[in-house]
């Protein structure tokens, strides 16, 4: 048994960076902040890799099965004996994999930002917030207590808010940050209520104990404690609500509206938070509670299955019509997360094969982190160069940025699922799991992978090919040699992460993932790639070819295609009008029908009552003040009248 | 530890201030006094822990002196975990309040004297174990509030397009606050008399002594009649719906230090009274009325939050949000599970610190920009980074971000409330949970419009950031918030009863 | 000499008392009010003397009371006149309705 206590340093070091840079970064450390931040995350990444090595290859297995290990447990807030929030660290295959992913991608982003954010006035604050985010995300994936994960969940949301709103004097950025926070908060409400339900049922907050108690039905649990509400058992409600929390963070339809707007933040932030790490938190949460999901009412997993599939499809359709490079990538992220979610939903209780979806989802999470982060960072380089996010301002860039071109191409091939890149392997497993579980979802997944190839290569061709060579005249605010800093494509600090991530995106597929991360800890043999790969790869290649046909050269073919599908095109272009629906509900219904009346009632009715009391008192007082008339004779009259009354009283009544 | 020191120090400081000449003398003497009080409170905390660790049970550091023999009124003081926590809270808020009022120029002597009397009343209230003494200290703190708001306050903003709401002048707000709180005290007094006359059994002596009454079981019909008096009376202090309307006008018209004290401490007098007096002494009636309390508290939470969304004045936003947050206190007390009650006390402390910080930030902004209207402010983060950061931290605490105290208190209340099975209670808990979304909406709207965004008025570009005293006040309250948020175990252990 | 029944004398004094009261409540001239007060006091005097002679003939307490009342009535009249003169100096009128400054 190794001592894993050093794992606590992995999240704590970035926290220290946040505190130091937050307090002193503005005035004293300035440009040195980047180095501090990067060094700290480098240490975390090294420790994570070491921990992964130790866990997966040295000490993690007991009898050939990967066991969860509690590395640390500190009581934080206890509600009653037995029910307490502990700061505990759990190590099992998914958490170890996640700390590697998070710290590694964070390191790449820190490195990239050294060049990208150079010269920013609030450079120190930027790195402080990155440190806060890294701490929160690492804490989230290491959490061994369900309320602990909720704590880090909220902290991640807060860091996201701070980072999206980094350029705070832009109203669009502020609005986007608010939207992200509020939508995820709404989902977190579901998560909170889910926690309350589950912890009440299991009388514990610790993950291991919770899972144990909820999966082995004991007589008391199966009895009247596990009641039901509206015909669905409380346990299912709890699980669905927790899933809703995850859906908000992972931008599943219909809680996805914040993700495209979140692109207002700096591009490295989008790479880290909204591509590789935070948005997968929902997937991670479901994976963490997977044992409970699998023994509960199968309807819960069906919900996850269909929600994921729907998300994947809708996002892919919308991505085909967008013109802002970051928004295309955002919808692509949403689509890929949909894949991960529905993979989790494909569980069948038939032994090891039935849990293929779990491994597939985690594998896709792993590979997606690489190629999506790579895509965003390349987008960052492009945007840095062209000073615009719009595709029409780009074109023919393959000559002026060869390295970015190569990396982008690798990433596109990976995401499209073309062998032998990493995305191919992970997508295959997902589709295989879907095929065995639900043919409809398999069909949707297949079609969406074709669409994915299409829109990604649409982006690729539009940015790097379309024009003969060099940028179109009048593209963005091109200041000649000044663009890109005058040092060519990008500084080394921006190039290294691209190369490293490209290597990862290319080769990560060869990692024997199913030997390491499975639902019950028992290593599975990797699947032989049989005939099932033909359909997806063919569709992907078709998508690539179609994109090339339409976008390789500047032409009116895209316009004609759009006109042919005009109705669907318009719907997709406006993102299915979901934003408008939300706007209507919040502004017209909630504000006007609930908020305004509440304020009105308070001011006029409730307060009016109090004011009326005061007015009544004043009126009565005005009425009886006439008794004090100032006239002696009136007083004398009252005096004698009183005597008369008292006399009658005493003579006739009290004798 | 002689607990009467905690009442005497503010009193002596107030008298000393009366003899000071000049602004500087007044300020520094007040600051010295409240700092001494803060150190005494810490001392009390340490001594308390030591006593408890050594096995002391019940109320600690008790002392009794006869006050008025014919009616069996004694001056009886003592503490337990809840009292110690509240005293510490009051000390923190008072130091911050004195620091924030550094720039009060007109009649500064009277201002500080009144503020110190207010605090003296609060300390006495939290220490008292005799019901009459408790009521005495409660009353001590009502009149200074009236004077503070009426003289040094500022009326509702009447500038700008929102002038269709009627102007609430500071005199009106002061009057409303004083009269409604006195109404509450009147109800409390009726309740206290009811309790008093029902003690002592057949022909025995009546008593106001709280520990003694807590041990005897008051007859159930007495409880049923007088519990509403006590609960509603104290509840008016804690913004019990529908008697909460003094809060928006009162807190907004008050000068910054008075707002901090009012929202931070004075609203907790009610919560403490509800718990200590109404619930502890009348548990049977409390259980019978608990559904009513829960309904009213839930209304306060949700309706208060919705009303906050529509406000246009920063101080009104904070005041209505105080109504919403204090609803959590009443919800926790109403649920009557151990965890929920501990959560209610935690919320008292957390909200006290948080709202004091928020009012301090708003006061700093108002002093500089001379407007509290959200639509007039904008882009303050660029101009006044420290004050803006303080505002953001207070806002994040208000919406219950983990790492700050608001989260700890709220989840304890939620967990405790969920433990009470039954559809009505579960529904109330879910509604209370839903308020976290509404709180996020209004806090972020206020923050987004005032702190972030482009600078609204070029006049703001010349505004100065916080001065040393304001920074110190903010840091002090911030340390309290973060200490509870990051390491809540010390507080939950303190409150174990 | 045949005794006049006590009740006759009491009628007289009661009549005097109520006449005095009526005058006190209705007259506007302050001097006239003073005269009415004197009437009231004297009616009480008659009561005392009558009760003394008819019920306790061998005691003199009633008559002593009467002497006291006479002296005090005289003093009180003097003080009242002084007040009326002062009021006249301020209000230029001895109408009691004019002296109503102590109203709400």
What does the model show?
The complex is a heterotrimer of chains A (655), B (497) and C (104). By secondary structure, chain A is mainly alpha-helical. Chain A contains 26 helices and 6 strands. The termini of chain A are far apart. In chain B, helix 3 runs antiparallel to helix 19 (468-486) and helix 9 (220-237) runs parallel beside helix 12. Chain B has helices at residues 4-18, 22-53, 81-100, 108-127, 131-140, 142-152, 170-198, 210-215, 220-237, 246-253, 256-281, 283-309, 314-335, 338-369, 380-383, 385-398, 405-418, 423-450, 468-486, 489-494; strands spanning 60-68, 73-79. A two-stranded antiparallel sheet of chain B has the order 1-2. Chain C has 104 residues and is mainly α. Chain C has a single domain (6-91), classed as Orthogonal Bundle (Helix Hairpins). In chain C, helix 2 (30-55) packs antiparallel against helix 3 (61-91). Chain C starts with 5 loop residues before the first helix and ends in a 13-residue tail after the last helix. Classes of the chains: A mainly alpha (655), B mainly alpha (497), C mainly alpha (104). Chains in contact: A-B, A-C. Chains A and B meet through strand 3, helix 5, helix 6 and helix 25 of A and helix 7, helix 12, helix 14, helix 17 and helix 18 of B.
Briefly summarize what is shown.
The complex is a heterotrimer of chains A (655), B (497) and C (104). Chain A has 655 residues and is mainly alpha-helical. Chain A has 26 helices and 6 strands.
Number of helical elements of chain B:
20
Q: Can you count the beta strands of chain B?
A: 2
Query: What profile does the largest beta sheet of chain C have?
Result: none
Strand order of the largest sheet of chain B: 1-2
Compute the number of strand runs of chain C. 0
Q: Extract low-pLDDT stretches of chain B.
A: 160-165
Query: What structural class should be given to the helix and strand makeup of chain C?
Result: mainly alpha
* Inertia-based shape of chain B: globular
Which second-level CATH architecture of chain C applies?
Answer: Orthogonal Bundle
CATH topology of chain C: Helix Hairpins
The average pLDDT of chain C is 92
> What oligomeric state do the depicted chains represent?
heterotrimer
String of helices and strands of chain C:
HHH
**How many helical stretches of chain C?**
3
Helical residues, percent of chain B:
over 70%
Percent helix of chain C, as a range, is: over 70%
What fraction of residues of chain B sit in β-strands?
under 5%
């Amino acid at each position: 048994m190794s001592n894993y206590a050093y794992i606590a340093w992995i999240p704590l070091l970035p926290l220290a960076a946040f505190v130091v840079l937050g307090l002193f970064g503005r005035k004293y450390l300035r440009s040195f902040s980047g180095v501090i931040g990067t060094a700290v995350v480098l240490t975390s990444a090294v420790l994570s890799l070491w921990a992964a090595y130790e866990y997966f290859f040295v000490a993690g297995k007991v009898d050939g099965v990967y066991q969860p290990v509690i590395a640390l447990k500190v009581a934080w807030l206890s509600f009653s004996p037995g029910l307490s929030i502990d700061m505990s660290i759990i190590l099992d295959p998914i958490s170890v994999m996640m700390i590697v992913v998070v710290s590694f991608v964070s390191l790449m982003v820190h490195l990239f930002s050294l060049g990208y954010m150079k010269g920013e006035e609030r450079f120190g604050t930027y790195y402080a917030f990155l440190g806060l985010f890294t701490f929160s995300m690492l804490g989230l994936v290491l959490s061994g207590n369900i309320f602990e994960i909720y704590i880090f969940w909220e902290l991640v949301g807060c860091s996201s808010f701070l980072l999206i709103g980094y350029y705070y004097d832009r109203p669009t950025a502020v609005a986007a940050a608010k939207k992200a926070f509020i939508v995820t908060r709404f989902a977190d409400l579901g998560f909170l209520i889910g926690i309350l339900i589950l912890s009440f049922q299991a009388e514990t907050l610790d993950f291991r104990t919770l899972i144990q108690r909820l999966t082995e039905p004991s007589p008391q649990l199966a009895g009247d404690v596990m009641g039901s509400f509206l015909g669905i058992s409380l346990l299912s409600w709890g699980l669905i609500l927790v899933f809703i929390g995850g859906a908000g963070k992972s931008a599943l339809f219909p809680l996805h509206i914040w993700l495209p707007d979140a692109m207002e933040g700096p591009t490295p932030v989008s790479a880290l938070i909204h591509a590789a790490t935070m948005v997968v938190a929902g997937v991670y949460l479901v994976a963490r509670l997977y044992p409970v999901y699998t023994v509960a009412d199968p309807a819960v997993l069906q919900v996850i299955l269909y929600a994921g599939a729907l998300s994947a499809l809708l996002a892919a359709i919308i991505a085909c019509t967008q013109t802002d490079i970051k928004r295309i990538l955002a919808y692509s992220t949403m689509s890929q997360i949909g894949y991960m979610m529905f993979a989790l939903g494909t569980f069948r209780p038939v032994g090891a094969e039935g849990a293929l979806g779990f491994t597939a989802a985690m594998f896709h999470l792993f590979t997606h982190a690489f190629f999506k982060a790579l895509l965003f960072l390349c987008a960052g380089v492009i945007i840095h160069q062209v000073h615009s996010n719009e595709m029409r301002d780009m074109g023919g860039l393959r000559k002026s940025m060869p390295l970015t071109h190569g990396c982008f191409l690798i990433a596109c091939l990976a995401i499209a699922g073309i062998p032998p890149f990493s995305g191919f392997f992970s997508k295959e497993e997902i589709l295989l799991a879907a095929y065995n579980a639900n043919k409809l979802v398999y069909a949707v997944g297949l079609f969406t992978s074709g669409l994915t190839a299409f829109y990604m290569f649409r982006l690729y061709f539009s940015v790097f090919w379309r024009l003969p060579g060099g940028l179109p005249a009048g593209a963005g605010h091109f200041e000649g040699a000044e663009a890109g800093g005058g040092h060519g494509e990008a500084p080394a600090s921006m190039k290294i992460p691209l190369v490293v991530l490209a290597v990862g995106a290319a080769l990560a597929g060869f990692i024997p993932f199913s030997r390491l991360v499975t639902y019950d800890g028992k290593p599975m043999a990797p699947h032989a790639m049989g005939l099932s790969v033909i359909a997806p790869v063919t569709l992907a290649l078709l998508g690539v070819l179609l994109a090339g046909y339409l976008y390789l050269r500047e032409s009116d073919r895209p316009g004609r295609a759009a006109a042919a599908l005009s109705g669907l095109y318009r719907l997709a272009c406006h993102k299915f009008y979901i934003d408008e629906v939300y706007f209507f509900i919040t502004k017209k219904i909630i504000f006007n029908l609930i908020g305004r009346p509440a304020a009105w009632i308070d001011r006029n009715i409730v307060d009016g009552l109090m004011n009326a009391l005061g007015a009544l008192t004043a009126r009565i007082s005005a009425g009886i003040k006439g008794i004090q008339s100032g006239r002696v004779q009136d007083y004398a009259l009252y005096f004698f009248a009183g005597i008369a009354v008292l006399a009658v009283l005493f003579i006739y009544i009290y004798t | 530890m002689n607990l009467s020191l905690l009442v005497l120090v503010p009193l002596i400081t107030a008298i000393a201030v009366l003899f000071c000449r000049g602004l500087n003398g007044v300020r520094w003497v007040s600051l010295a006094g409240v700092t001494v009080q803060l150190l005494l409170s810490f001392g009390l905390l340490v001594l308390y822990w030591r006593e408890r660790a050594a096995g002391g049970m019940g109320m600690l550091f008790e002392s009794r002196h006869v006050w008025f023999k014919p009616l069996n009124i004694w001056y009886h003081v003592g503490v337990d975990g809840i009292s110690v926590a509240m005293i510490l809270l009051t000390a923190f808020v008072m130091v911050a309040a004195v620091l924030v009022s550094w720039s009060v120029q007109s009649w500064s002597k009277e201002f500080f004297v009144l503020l110190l009397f207010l605090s003296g009343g609060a300390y006495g209230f939290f220490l008292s174990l005799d019901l009459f003494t408790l009521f005495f200290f409660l009353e001590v703190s009502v009149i200074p509030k009236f004077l503070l708001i009426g003289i040094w306050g500022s009326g509702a903003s009447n500038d700008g397009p929102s002038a269709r709401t009627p102007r609430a002048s500071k005199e009106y707000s002061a009057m409303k606050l004083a009269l409604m709180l006195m109404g509450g005290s009147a109800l409390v007094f009726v309740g206290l008399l009811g309790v008093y006359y029902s003690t002592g059994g057949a022909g025995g002596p009546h008593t106001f002594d709280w520990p003694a009454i807590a041990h005897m079981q008051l007859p159930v019909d007495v409880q049923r009649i007088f519990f509403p008096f006590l609960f509603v009376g104290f509840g008016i202090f804690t913004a019990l719906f529908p008697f909460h309307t003094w809060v928006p006008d009162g807190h907004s018209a008050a000068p910054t230090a008075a707002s901090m004290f009012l929202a931070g401490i004075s609203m907790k007098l009610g919560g403490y009274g509800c718990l200590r007096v109404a619930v502890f002494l009348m548990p049977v009636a409390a259980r019978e009325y608990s559904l009513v309390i829960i309904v009213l508290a839930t209304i306060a939470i949700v309706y208060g939050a919705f009303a906050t969304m529509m406000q246009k004045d920063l101080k009104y936003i904070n005041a209505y949000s105080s109504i919403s947050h204090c609803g959590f206190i009443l919800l926790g007390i109403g649920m009557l599970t151990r965890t929920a009650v501990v959560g209610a006390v935690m919320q008292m402390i957390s909200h006290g610190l948080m709202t004091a910080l928020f009012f301090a930030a708003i006061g700093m902004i108002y002093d500089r920009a001379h407007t509290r209207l959200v639509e007039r402010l904008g882009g303050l983060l660029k101009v006044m980074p420290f004050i803006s950061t303080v505002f953001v931290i207070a806002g994040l605490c208000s919406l219950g971000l983990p790492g700050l105290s608001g989260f700890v208190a709220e989840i304890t209340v939620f967990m405790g409330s969920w433990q009470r099975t039954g559809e009505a209670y579960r529904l109330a808990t879910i509604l209370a949970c839903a308020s976290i979304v509404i709180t996020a909406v209004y806090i972020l709207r206020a923050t987004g419009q005032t702190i972030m965004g482009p600078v609204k008025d070029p006049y703001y570009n010349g505004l100065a950031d916080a001065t040393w005293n304001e920074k110190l006040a903010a840091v002090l309250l911030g340390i309290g918030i973060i200490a509870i948020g990051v390491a809540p175990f010390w507080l939950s252990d303190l409150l174990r009863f | 000499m045949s005794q006049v029944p006590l009740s006759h004398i009491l009628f007289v004094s009661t009549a005097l008392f109520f006449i005095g009261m009526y005058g006190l409540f209705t007259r506007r001239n302050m001097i006239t009010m003073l005269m009415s007060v004197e009437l009231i006091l004297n009616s009480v005097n008659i009561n005392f003397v009558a009760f003394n002679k008819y019920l306790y003939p061998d005691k003199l307490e009633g008559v002593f009371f009467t002497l006291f009342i006479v002296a005090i009535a005289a003093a009180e009249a003097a003080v009242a006149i002084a007040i009326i003169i002062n009021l006249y100096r301020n209000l230029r009128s001895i109408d009691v309705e004019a002296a109503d400054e102590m109203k709400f």
